[in-house]
Amino acid sequence: MDYANLRRRSLLTAALALPFPALGQAKCGAPTPADMEGPFYKAGAPLRASLAEPGSKAERLLPAGIVTSADCRPLADVVLDFWHADASGEYDHRGFRYRGIVKTDAQGRYLLETNLPPPYMGRPRHIHVKAQRAGGKILTTQLYFPGESRGADRALVVKMERAGGELRALYDFSLFG
Ligand code: FE
Fold first, then answer.
1. CATH number of the domain residue 86 falls in
2. What's the rounded Cα separation, in Å, for the pair 63 and 169?
3. Which helix (H) or strand (E) holds 10?
4. How many domains does the chain have?
5. Ligand 1 centre from 18 Cα, in Å?
6. 144 alpha carbon – ligand 1 mean position (Å)
7. I need a surface site. Which of 34, 83, 92, 95 has the fewest CB within 10 A?
8. Spatial CA neighbour of 51 closest among 95, 106, 109, 108
9. DSSP letter (8 states) at residue 49
10. How far is the CA of 137 from the centre of ligand 1 (A)?
11. Which residues contact 2 (CB under 8 A, 6 or more apart)?
12. 136 CA to middle of ligand 1, Å?
């Protein structure tokens, strides 16, 4: 899927399913908690709306939501640097498979397309992310999935939604730094 197409879908998704105020995952007014970076972060991931691999057996997943400030204003141009494991539970150490950056739009919304990562090495299923507003501090954290988030902060669990054949992972960030 090309970026323009995904962008249109993003706006449609936002218009239909993500009205402001946010869906209330990370409550506006409470900062999104930090979590371990883990050993597999790699700087320099490309800016792209889709990480999905055409040949992947893993289900297509659309993480989406909005990013707000401490005073609950939507934040544009926030950098969200995502990385996660492939269907075998492996991270790409050579290239940037399942690594990519998206930015929030003027209304603070983001949308990513990827494939659902598996649990691996005894860890619950998760997606890593670094979030940073312009001039702000980097928030390093992880997003978890309902019913399989043992040991995780509940404030980091996405809301899953299946709509129109799409599997969405809805999560709103609240950046205080
Ligand atoms: Fe990990």
1. 2.60.130.10
2. 4
3. helix 3-17
4. 1
5. 27
6. 11
7. 95
8. 95
9. S
10. 21
11. none
12. 24
Whole-number Å distance, alpha carbon 121 to ligand 1 midpoint, is 9
141 CA from centroid of ligand 1 (Å): 10
Domain that holds residue 94: 3-175
Question: Tens digits of per-residue pLDDT, 53-103?
Answer: 999 989 999 999 999 999 889 999 999 999 999 999 999 999 999 999 999
Angle at 65 between CA 62 and CA 69, to 5 degrees: 150
pTM for this model (two decimals): 0.86
d(CA 60, ligand 1 centre) in Å = 18
CA–centroid distance, residue 145 to ligand 1 (Å): 13
Tokens at 110, concatenated: 């983001």
Cβ-based burial of 71 (10 A; exposed 0-12, middle 13-18, buried ≥19): exposed
Compute, in angstroms, the gap from residue 39 CA to the centroid of ligand 1: 8
Spatial contact of 75 and 108, defined as CB atoms under 8 Å apart: yes
Per-residue pLDDT reduced to its tens digit, 144-160: 999 998 889 999 999 99
